[in-house]
Structure formats: C-alpha cells, structure tokens
Amino acid sequence: MVIVLVLVVVLAMVLVLLLVLVLILVMVLVMVLAMLMVLILLMLVDWVVLVLVLSPVLVMVLALVLVLMVNAAKMASGCSADPEEQGFSPRVLDPGKRLPLPS
After folding, report:
1. Which candidate, 76, 62, 96, places its Cα nearest to that of 23?
2. TM spans, by residue (predicted)?
3. Do 69 and 24 meet the contact criterion of CB atoms below 8 Å apart?
4. Nearest Cα residue to 77 out of 65, 69, 67, 66
5. How far, in Å, CA of 53 to CA of 67, rounded?
6. Are 79 and 20 in contact (CB under 8 A)?
7. Residue 90 to residue 99: CA distance in whole angstroms
C-alpha cells in the first residue's frame, strides 16, 4: 500500500514537471512565431513605422513572457513567489521612534 502511494506521488510530480515544461515550450514557440510575424511585417511595411508602433507591444509581451517563465521555474522548484510565505514580513518603521543620529 505504501509503495502504491509513493508511486502515485512520484507520478504526479513527474506529470506536473512535464506540464511546466510543455507550458515553457509553448511560450517559447509563441515568442518565435511573434518574431517571425514581425520579420514578415518588416519586409512589407516601412521599418520606421513598424518599430514605432510595435516596440512598446513587444516590450510588454517580452516582459510578460519573462514573468511567466520565472513563475513557472519557481513553481517547478517548489519555491513560493510570496515573500511572506517564505518567512519574510514587510518591515514597518514606527513613526514615533526616532533613529539615532550619527556621531
């Protein structure tokens, strides 16, 4: 019975890891397709207009992909993205307490 439970847990972990890897591969594929689309548009449209229009969009898309990949890597490694779950609490200074002056 214990062996079956261990096998189920290991299988679940492997499936989650495969799911994370597939998600990362899909994100990379979407990014490559977006870059190919931009290259095709570069051949068709004046590049100055294209860069002026698409550069903010590309920056936002790349930032979103980076954030998603970092979160997926943290989930795969078991780290929590929430600092309070890791034991860090936000430091609040007491407004009534004065800091010592440097001598």
Report:
1. 76
2. 12-41, 47-70
3. yes
4. 69
5. 23
6. no
7. 19
Indicate left, alpha or beta for 87 from its phi (over 0: left) and psi (-120 to 50: alpha).
left
Residue whose entry in the numeric block shows the structure tokens 């492997």: 14
pTM, to two decimals: 0.39
Give the CB-side neighbour count of residue 61, counting CA atoms within 13 A: 14
pLDDT at 79: 61
Backbone phi, then psi, for 81, in 5-degree steps? -80, -15
What lies within 8 Å, CB to CB, of 58 at 6+ separation is 34, 38
pLDDT tens column, 2-58: 888 899 999 999 999 999 999 999 988 998 888 888 778 777 777 666 677 777 877
Between CA 23 and CA 17 the distance in angstroms is 10
Count helices and strands (H / E) in the chain: 2, 0
